[in-house]
Amino acid sequence: MKKVVLGFSGGLDTTYCVKYLTEEKGYEVHSVIVNTGGFTREELDKIAVHAKTLGVTSHTTVDAVKGYYDRIIKYLVFGNVLKNNTYPLSVSAERLVQALHIAEHVQKLQADAVAHGSTGAGNDQVRFDMVFHIMIPNVEIITPIRDLKLSREEEISYLKSKGVDMNFEKAAYSINKGLWGTSVGGKETLHSKGMLPEEAWPTQVTKTGSEEVKLHFEKGELTAVNDQSFEHPSAAIQYLQTIAGAYGIGRDIHVGDTIIGIKGRVGFEAAAPMVILKAHHALEKHVLTKWQLSWKDTIANFYGNWLHEGQILDPVMRDIEAFLQSAQANVTGDVFVQLQPYRFQVTGIESNYDLMSSKFGKYGEMNSGWSGQDVRGFSKIFGNQTSMYYQVKKDVEGAAGN
Amino acid sequence: MKKVVLGFSGGLDTTYCVKYLTEEKGYEVHSVIVNTGGFTREELDKIAVHAKTLGVTSHTTVDAVKGYYDRIIKYLVFGNVLKNNTYPLSVSAERLVQALHIAEHVQKLQADAVAHGSTGAGNDQVRFDMVFHIMIPNVEIITPIRDLKLSREEEISYLKSKGVDMNFEKAAYSINKGLWGTSVGGKETLHSKGMLPEEAWPTQVTKTGSEEVKLHFEKGELTAVNDQSFEHPSAAIQYLQTIAGAYGIGRDIHVGDTIIGIKGRVGFEAAAPMVILKAHHALEKHVLTKWQLSWKDTIANFYGNWLHEGQILDPVMRDIEAFLQSAQANVTGDVFVQLQPYRFQVTGIESNYDLMSSKFGKYGEMNSGWSGQDVRGFSKIFGNQTSMYYQVKKDVEGAAGN
Amino acid sequence: MKKVVLGFSGGLDTTYCVKYLTEEKGYEVHSVIVNTGGFTREELDKIAVHAKTLGVTSHTTVDAVKGYYDRIIKYLVFGNVLKNNTYPLSVSAERLVQALHIAEHVQKLQADAVAHGSTGAGNDQVRFDMVFHIMIPNVEIITPIRDLKLSREEEISYLKSKGVDMNFEKAAYSINKGLWGTSVGGKETLHSKGMLPEEAWPTQVTKTGSEEVKLHFEKGELTAVNDQSFEHPSAAIQYLQTIAGAYGIGRDIHVGDTIIGIKGRVGFEAAAPMVILKAHHALEKHVLTKWQLSWKDTIANFYGNWLHEGQILDPVMRDIEAFLQSAQANVTGDVFVQLQPYRFQVTGIESNYDLMSSKFGKYGEMNSGWSGQDVRGFSKIFGNQTSMYYQVKKDVEGAAGN
Amino acid sequence: MKKVVLGFSGGLDTTYCVKYLTEEKGYEVHSVIVNTGGFTREELDKIAVHAKTLGVTSHTTVDAVKGYYDRIIKYLVFGNVLKNNTYPLSVSAERLVQALHIAEHVQKLQADAVAHGSTGAGNDQVRFDMVFHIMIPNVEIITPIRDLKLSREEEISYLKSKGVDMNFEKAAYSINKGLWGTSVGGKETLHSKGMLPEEAWPTQVTKTGSEEVKLHFEKGELTAVNDQSFEHPSAAIQYLQTIAGAYGIGRDIHVGDTIIGIKGRVGFEAAAPMVILKAHHALEKHVLTKWQLSWKDTIANFYGNWLHEGQILDPVMRDIEAFLQSAQANVTGDVFVQLQPYRFQVTGIESNYDLMSSKFGKYGEMNSGWSGQDVRGFSKIFGNQTSMYYQVKKDVEGAAGN
After folding, report:
1. Secondary structure string (H, E, C) spanning C133-198
2. Domain spanning B3-72+88-161: which superfamily?
3. Residues of C with CB below 8 A from B384's CB?
4. Identity of the residue in B125, B255, B342 whose CB atom sits nearest the CB atom of A356
5. Cβ of C325 and B327 within 8 Å?
6. In what order do the strands lie in the sheet with D3-7?
7. At what angle are helices B12-19 and B41-54 packed, to 10 degrees?
């Protein structure tokens, strides 16, 4: 009997896949769920029970939170990556980690095929397909939902006919939760105009007033919050999320380019990610040189876009990571952030590597390391070529005028 | 008698310059003030009176608001330029327009020298020096404050000795206002930590609740607000500022690289600029292609940095402007923004050029222009090279393992 | 009867397509050949006769040489585009112009389908497919050679069975000639090692000794060679080719990334293109500013790669062209080039816009526009931030050492 | 008595400096010469004798060849760095290594001052000044030639008056030799037009005919030539130079932007560097992915320009080096190069990491890892957004036309 490994979330589509692969295709189905921070222990247990009830041969739960951070999120922080200056790539990043774990599971089980529940209209199909083509190139990829183009109703009716009992109600919004943020799609996001209503956000605002948090970074990684240290940055992120999430911070709507060309709009809430990215960037602005900041922006922009498009395995990504890692050598210090309902403000930093040290002079007020005469010479030389350019131009135009 | 043109703001430093140039250096002083949107008619008149009282031979007021927009701000909007993803370059941009107008004034008066009141510790000295070196290369540049390194007290005592009567009190914060935002420096901004207190902000928050505004862009330029059209985008910006400013929107602190190498920290409030930049970017995300968005970011980042460093006259800036202008062909439509105290949210757009049109399918839900089979082929080819890369790597490592 | 427009070269593959489309598929075939400079009048006439003999309903010859230059080559010159610093994109560029003309022909004839003779292993299939998807999105694309995966022998045997009489012999090398160079593939290029033998090059070396040519550029375009003016730059290119080609200049082998992921190796000869690109670049190095040169490189690199991948219709290409056009404002002057068998050397330029004017000083010898003191100040400020960086680093490390 | 460390070449300018610093300024002069591959043992000994005769307190010879390679040239090879696609940065690179060694010597001797013999018209003054400002910020920098603006005749007459006996004849060309190439300036290079005559080149052409060399790279570094291994890549470079130099390979004239704004023209011969750079790049084109090649170009371009401008100590250079190092992981293999008088041709490569492996299909001929159907889908999706762009545009224009 041929084995297939199925990426399984317990939702309608992947539930359909279990039954379809088992009963219509005669596969031995091995379901796997990769937790990237969005599921509680209870939810994972429920999903496991559901999988078993559906008749899978084996069901595996992979706890990928730390690896997700180490492999991807770390670099998103180093690069201050926000797609189109807006979206922390919450879903894009975690889909790739899931695909990588599923591919490993296929290798381990020496399965004949791998299946995922993506439709033909989104990004995820490309991310799964591509990681599988690369990691397990000779394994067949089966995508029932995409290939059969089934409607929701058809899936439900098929499952009912197979005696499956589950909650068939369609949620008002499709929600995807993970360590690096939660996406919220549906209704308003399906059009170019319209904001999600208050009740659509998974994390409701429960705090008022204002609160300061202190984030400690070591070589670019968040290691402590309010002087509380964590054994792994992923735990620090989760802790900060409990603090900042309750303020409704980091909510926004993003419209972006999908891999397949259409524009897609999605709401997201990402309190901890947004606070961390802005705090990290603020610290970098104090400790890095001008061209470090500039090149980090350029290169990290590409990193984010290429990751979004599923290209995490292109070796150029390793090269960029080497650059980003090198640039974090001095990104160590504390960042102070004021949290308030729906917004936050970085209020300052403290770092031994701070280049804004008063011993070098104070911007606009005092120059101790150089003289006005030095700047006078600098200005002359700094504009020297453009000055020549205008003199040459004037000569040509003057000559032409005669 | 030798003529000097002096950039004049009416403050302590440039007041000192008038007296110093006239009485110590024997110059005929022609003062000029270039209004880039920060002064009212009354303020300008008062400054003119002050100049005359000090004994200048002529005083000229240049209304540069429209030209400032046409020459610089337009492109900052096209490029969604925020220095280090934070600061709209409020001061950097206007200083250059001022320098350009002063240089023109020097040419018109055929003056022997040009003077500015910059210290040796900031960016402005470089901007003024450099524009003068380029535009009026043979005109002497005089910078009394920088060269003499006078203290505030010394300046005051000199002026008093010359019978000058003016407000000698030092403001708690140094404020610079213009069409594209107001900077606020002093106390907290002189250190790496600390936020400006509520009372330091020139525009106080007077509105509560929430309000929607509709911004209309034509080829990237703001031409109407809430269906009210303006003869020039600069007027639209000023109108939007009256609406959004009262919410305390667009306040932040930026730490950045000065031209001369030190890090400088400055507070700013820029309600209209921040709303316009985010609204414009949102519209672009709907109407431009992926690589237009990507290259605009890269190139506009440089544009902003190079402008900040005073290099507006480098011809590469014209080339970049040609790129940015070309990219605005379809950036036409309405953008909806929700304003609230201290924050705002772009809630959607309407544009005939919107590429997120439901006729092409709905992201994640429906694909009408292509098939799942097409995407399957795409994914295979899109990851083809990386797939080969891993196969080759495996072969080498496998061989090495034997 | 359904109409199909077929891109027709007269070779085995497209000859097969005519018969297949007519006799197996029942189409009315309208063949079209787009001359981008590679065919003589006689060759085009022969191809027309061949098409008619095969039974096409109509055959059209499009003379696209000027348009090819105006639409693409001009910008490749402006950008000094050499893919991977080697290959002038001879074939990539012309394939797109051919696709665009074929698409126009489809629109004109209101054809139901369009056909091309590409295999499934190269770049051209993507270029044709993509231009057709964009320009004529609802027209069916038929690709018999790709879809049927026929061997050469099968094609010949089919054609013979249909009574077709033509030269069925396989050339030792596959050659593609056009205005912007000639590619040569086969034998040696199919492997990673090995150079094409002398006899494989379509243009044999017939000149010895050495010869100077003078190229005149107006705003970046070649308008005269040795003081002989041409009504269109494409004619100047062809004239220069007759001079430089006979020296065997511009031969090389390129290995590059195909659109579909594999690496491909191809020989090419491109005497006029290589001489023009290097001459144009030399002129630019004299008349453009440092950052114009730098940004042109970056942006033109992408332009060349994206063009190579068939993306000529992405609007970002128009934006880049606007940049490149703007940068050519002063690229006017004469360039002197020494030609010799197998090599050439740019020996100098003359231009009114030359920024290397002795009136500004002589590099390394004399400084007339600034003083040593100015440079001293410049050096201090230019390294100011890095100097602070090291002082801060030393402090931290010193403190850590205690 | 105050100590000064003087960078000493034994030429007229630095000879003048010794006497001037000793006799006019009362310094104890410690001369140092840093050999970056341009001097023989005999030349260095002669220079030492000359220094002693002039009366220096100490003279030190630093052999910096290996360190020069390890610190800079390695990365220039990794990045295939040619300034403006022409010049291997022969002089720029070695000047920085010299400055770094001189600064170390200052620290070791705890000298009060450092001196160099640069004029005010070239790049070297900035490179020396800047490295000194950064590495030894509190040490006075003395530049007699720049500051006194002495003519050659004045220097000679002064030295004669001090009884100095040396060759005072001016060479027809100023030559600077080092491991990474030799620059040749004078006469023709002082103007925009004119090639150096045959006799001006330091290495004369003594070989005829043709010769193949095989270069072996390990992770991007040249480790063997024609199967002869070297303990350090710098020795391999020197060995290759003896082979290729005699063919007159790698001669060219470059016009480039100096740090101080003027354009400078310089001849150079760099046989080994040019062969190595092109061979290395050829190998990379076979083993790296498309985006590795593309980003390497972009980032290495900046690296070369920034190095040229003396900014080797900016930490961003370390970050770029980390990127470049990472990208060399698979750059291992043999490259075959045909040498002939005045030219060379890379004829192929052999590498286990070659991505142009026939097992993946042959470009243009055979596709074994994917189907024509896959490419069809790819083309559709790859052009999907631009296709939508044109449909939207047509709708708007159609509507506008009504």
Report:
1. HHHCCCCEEECHHHHHCCCHHHHHHHHHHCCCCCCCCCCCCEEEEECCEEEEECHHHHCCECCCCH
2. HUPs (3.40.50.620)
3. 260-262
4. B255
5. no
6. D58-63, D28-35, D3-7, D113-115, D140-142
7. 30
CB pairs under 8 A between C and D: 295
Question: What mean pLDDT value characterizes chain C?
Answer: 95
- Domain A3-161 carries which CATH code? 3.40.50.620
Minimal Cβ distance to D374: which of B371, B377, B389: B377
Q: What is the ipTM of this complex?
A: 0.96
Give the mean pLDDT of chain B: 95
Mean pLDDT, range D272-299, rounded to an integer:
98
pLDDT score, position C121: 84
Does A122 contact B363 at a Cβ distance shorter than 8 Å? Answer: yes
- Residue A284 has a pLDDT of 98
Q: What is the mean pLDDT of residues A55-75?
A: 97
- Interchain CB distance below 8 Å, C352 and A395: yes
Domain range A179-288+330-350, its CATH number among 3.90.1260.10, 3.20.10.10, 3.30.2060.10, 3.40.50.10800: 3.90.1260.10
Task: For residue A359, give the chain C residue with the closest CA.
Answer: C388
Q: Is 60 exceeded by the pLDDT of residue A401?
A: no
Residues of B engaging C, defined by a Cβ cutoff of 8 Å: 257, 260-262, 288-289, 291-292, 295-296, 299, 302, 306, 311, 314-316, 318-327, 329-330, 381, 383-385, 387-388
* Residue C11 pLDDT greater than 70, yes or no: yes
Is it the case that residue A254 has pLDDT exceeding 80?
A: yes
pLDDT tens digits, one per residue of B120-158: 888 999 999 999 999 999 999 999 999 999 889 999 999
Phi, psi of B262 (to 5 degrees): -75, 165
CATH 3.90.1260.10 matches B174-288+330-350: yes
Contact D319 A326 (CB under 8 A): yes
Q: Do the two domains C3-161 and C174-288+330-350 of this chain adopt the same fold?
A: no
Q: How far is D205 from chain A (nearest CA, A)?
A: 38
C-alpha dihedral, D358 to D359 to D361 to D366, nearest 10°: 90
- Sheet with C251-257: list strands edge to edge: C174-178, C181-185, C263-269, C251-257
Interchain proximity D261–A388, CB inside 8 Å: yes
Is residue D401 pLDDT above 60, yes or no? no
Using CB atoms, pick whichever of B380, B389, B399 lies closest to residue D355.
Answer: B389
Nearest CA in chain B to A349: B193
Sign of the CA dihedral with D109 first, then D110, D112, and D116 last? positive
Per residue in B167-204, pLDDT (tens digit) is: 999 899 999 999 999 999 999 999 999 999 999 999 99
Q: Give yes or no for residue A209 having a pLDDT over 80.
A: yes
Are the beta carbons of C8 and C32 closer than 8 angstroms? yes
- The C-alpha of C357 sits at a distance from chain A's nearest C-alpha, in angstroms, of 9
User: Which token pair is C286?
Assistant: 């004299």
**Spatial distance between the Cα atoms of B231 and C292, rounded to a whole number of angstroms:** 35
pLDDT at res. C400: 64
User: In chain B, which residue's Cα lies nearest the Cα of A390?
Assistant: B134
The whole-angstrom separation of Cα A305 and Cα A83 is 7
- pLDDT (0 to 100) of residue A364: 62
Chain A neighbours (≥3 Cβ pairs under 8 A) are: B, C, D
- Please state the domain extents for chain A: 3-161, 179-288+330-350
Strands D28-35 and D58-63, bridge-based pairing: parallel
Which residue, chain included where needed, has tokens 């941009």?
Answer: B93
Q: Would the CB atoms of D353 and B393 count as touching at under 8 Å?
A: yes
What integer pLDDT is reported at residue C204 of this predicted model? 95
Q: How many CA atoms lie within 13 A of A196 on its CB side?
A: 26
Q: Choose from B12, B84, B187, B301 for mutation: most chain A CBs within 10 A.
A: B84
Beta bridge partners of C337: C213, C346
